[in-house]
Amino acid sequence: MKESTMSLNLRKQVDDCRPYIAGETEASVLKRYGLDKVVKLGSNENPFGPYENAKRAMKESLKVINRYPEDDYVELTEVLAKVNNLDVTNVALGSGAGNVIETVARLLIDEGDEVLVAKPTYRLYREVSILMGAVIKNVPVKSDFTYDFEAMKESISDKTKLIWLCNPNNPTGVINDRREIERFIESVGEDVWIVLDEAYADFINEGQRPEIVELLKNKKLIVIRTFSKFYGMAGARVGYIMAQAPVISAFDTITEPFCVNRTGLFAAKAALLEDQKQAYKVKEFISNERERMSIALNKRGFTVIPSSSNFIFAKLPDGFYSAEICEQLMAKGVIIRECDAWGYPEYVRITVGKKEENDFLLSKLDEVI
After folding, report:
1. Of the candidates 334, 337, 340, which has an alpha carbon nearest to the alpha carbon of residue 366?
2. Is there a cis peptide before residue 50, judged by omega within 30 degrees of 0?
């Protein structure tokens, strides 16, 4: 039972926050059902990472793991600036995208500020904003699950401080037209911050992503990225922010010193400089496998929403609900994500795994649907 903050003497906003609930773990499902094998396709993890040079760099980092990573911070920041055609003053690091999101909320939000979030989207935006005392305005997506930018603009008031955007969106995997995003960012007044979360953007096809260098000329834009998804380094916890220099300076001021571990820093640098060929081969595989899985699911009565990420958002056949189906699949050794928490009890989110993992899921779906 959640005890009230009144009796614990905590911040009053904590009562309004809901804990972030991660996907089921392999260990918990193995134990619960007494299984010998579990295929985890519920947390949007990249089953192929980290890549070879990143793994080698991780081992190298152990030789100096007793030291604080001052130089490694600088080196990774310089590499990130170079690959993104930015100045080093436009980049800062964080311990995964989640840490960056939380730090951005602390940087920007005052109590009573209005914050706009799409519905559905990544739930952490709501929780960190509420913790800072924000008033949340939900803006439903359109029927095709793209952002309703007109509705967002109409929702902006003189109290609006921040708009969270996620492209591709989570849990849908849907991308918004790059020109629409660019026009929306340009149209929003200078009093409103826009935070663009690109955790899954590396999976987008070339030519469909917004031009970040041009967009960052907007003084009120912040872009967030991570090494967790495309580079398969979710456990290393390396994320970063791109913004104008004064924003980066303020971000660094309130960020915990050395919040990214040395192993993650070594791996991220190697991934950027030496693992691109392997990473893009995996991107091609995921794209092809996502298409194959989408066709297979459609044949089974699902309605698959077109995705540009490493996961699939799909409506179950009529009469089925995600909580029930996900529980039945776990009992058979497959973890996917139910979508009740996003307000979509008839939908599931499925990570694109290795071919044999995806085939195992399809075989178990045939047993429960």
Report:
1. 334
2. yes
Q: Give the residue among 125, 180, 124, 109 at the shortest CA–CA distance from 147.
A: 180
pLDDT at 244 over 80: yes
Strands of the chain, DSSP E:
39-40, 91-94, 114-119, 135-140, 160-166, 193-197, 221-226, 239-242, 303-305, 311-315, 334-335, 337-338, 347-351
Q: Are 191 and 203 in contact (CB under 8 A)?
A: no
CATH number at 5-49+277-368: 3.90.1150.10
Tokens read off for 346? 């008839």
Q: Alpha-carbon distance 88 to 79, whole Å?
A: 9
The string of pLDDT tens digits covering residues 113-156 is 999 999 999 999 999 999 999 999 999 999 999 999 999 999 99
- What pLDDT digit, counting tens, does each position of 271-314 carry? 999 999 999 999 999 999 999 999 999 999 999 999 999 999 99
CATH number of 52-274: 3.40.640.10
